[in-house]
């Protein structure tokens, strides 16, 4: 859905995802990086622009381009989705970054900004995160954030090749947020 939310801090800036980000994003996307997504790997700026348009069209999804706060360089993308304000819950995902930013401060900085907005601005009671259960890099990153594993939904998703995949679910509840925030701030200090 179209939105004007901008979140900034800790060296990153999250801005509404738009077609102008397509060329920068597709430049670092490949099959291995895209593994775990439910759509085919975009290979051209036009295909990435279609992926972006599809993301923006989803009700309850606020998609962001992740930028370097100083240079404006595109580092990746992330989203709020399945936002249900009436139930005080949202999910964070559809996240990918170029390899130069793996293992650094980009992911914890983005998650701190998104979680702070969800809990502090929106008053969420629950924020969920999920990943393909075979994507050990992503599931490990989610656990490093301080999210609690909730289980695996078997045969929950269809991969781009048509095979079925399991989804590992994690969550952070409002009463857990202060400790999670402290852990993320410590990682970024």
Itemize the secondary structure elements and their pairings.
Blueprint: E1 7-9, E2 12-16, H1 22-26, H2 31-34, H3 45-57, E3 62-68, E4 74-84, E5 89-97, H4 106-121, E6 126-132, H5 136-145, E7 148-158, E8 164-173, H6 177-188
Parallel strand pairs: 5-6
Antiparallel strand pairs: 1-2, 2-3, 3-4, 4-5, 6-8, 7-8
Helix pairs in contact: 4-6
Architecture overview:
- Pfam families: Acetyltransf_3 (PF13302).
- This is N-acetyltransferase.
- One of its GO terms (molecular function) is acyltransferase activity, transferring groups other than amino-acyl groups.
- Keywords: Transferase.
- It comes from Cellulomonas rhizosphaerae.
- With 189 residues, the protein is an alpha+beta fold.
- The chain has one domain: Gcn5-related N-acetyltransferase (GNAT) (Aminopeptidase, 3-Layer(aba) Sandwich), CATH 3.40.630.30.
- It is 32% helix and 33% strand.
- Strands 1-2-3-4-5-6-8-7 form an 8-stranded mixed beta sheet, with helices on both faces.
- Strand 5, helix 4 and strand 6 form a beta-alpha-beta unit.
- Helix 4 packs antiparallel against helix 6.
- The chain is globular and about 45 Å long.
- The protein starts with 6 loop residues before the first strand and ends with a helix.
- The model has no long low-confidence stretch (mean pLDDT 95).
CATH homologous superfamily grouping: Gcn5-related N-acetyltransferase (GNAT)
Share of residues in strands? 25-35%
C-alpha end-to-end distance: 33 Å
Our count of helices gives 6
Q: Assign the CATH architecture.
A: 3-Layer(aba) Sandwich
Strand order of the largest sheet: 1-2-3-4-5-6-8-7
Q: Provide the low-confidence segments as ranges.
A: none
> Helix/strand/pairing class, anyone?
alpha+beta
What best-fitting shape do the alpha-carbon axes yield? globular
* Number of E-type strands: 8
Largest sheet properties:
8 strands, mixed
CATH topology heading: Aminopeptidase
Order of helices and strands: EEHHHEEEHEHEEH
Query: What gyration radius follows from the Cα positions, in whole Å?
Result: 16 Å
Q: What number is the mean pLDDT?
A: 95
Helix content: 25-40%
- What is the number of independent domains? 1
Task: Using the coordinates above, name the CATH class.
Answer: Alpha Beta
Protein name: N-acetyltransferase
GO molecular function, one term: acyltransferase activity, transferring groups other than amino-acyl groups
InterPro entries: Acyl_CoA_acyltransferase, GNAT_dom
Keywords: Transferase
């Amino acid at each position: 859905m179209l939105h004007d939310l901008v979140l900034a801090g800790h060296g990153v800036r999250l801005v509404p995802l738009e077609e102008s980000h397509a060329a920068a994003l597709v430049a670092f996307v490949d099959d291995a990086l895209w593994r775990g997504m439910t759509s085919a790997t975009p290979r051209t700026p036009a295909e990435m622009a279609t992926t972006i348009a599809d993301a923006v069209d989803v009700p309850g999804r606020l998609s962001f381009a992740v930028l370097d706060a100083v240079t404006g360089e595109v580092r990746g993308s992330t989203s709020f989705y399945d936002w249900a304000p009436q139930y005080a819950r949202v999910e964070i995902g559809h996240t990918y970054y170029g390899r130069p930013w793996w293992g650094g401060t980009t992911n914890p900085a983005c998650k701190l900004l998104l979680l702070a907005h969800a809990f502090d601005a929106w008053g969420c009671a629950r924020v969920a995160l999920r990943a393909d259960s075979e994507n050990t890099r992503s599931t490990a990153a989610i656990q490093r954030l301080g999210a609690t594993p909730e289980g695996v939904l078997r045969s929950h998703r269809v991969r781009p090749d048509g095979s079925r995949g399991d989804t590992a679910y994690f969550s952070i509840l409002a009463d857990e947020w202060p400790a999670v925030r402290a852990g993320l701030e410590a990682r970024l200090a």
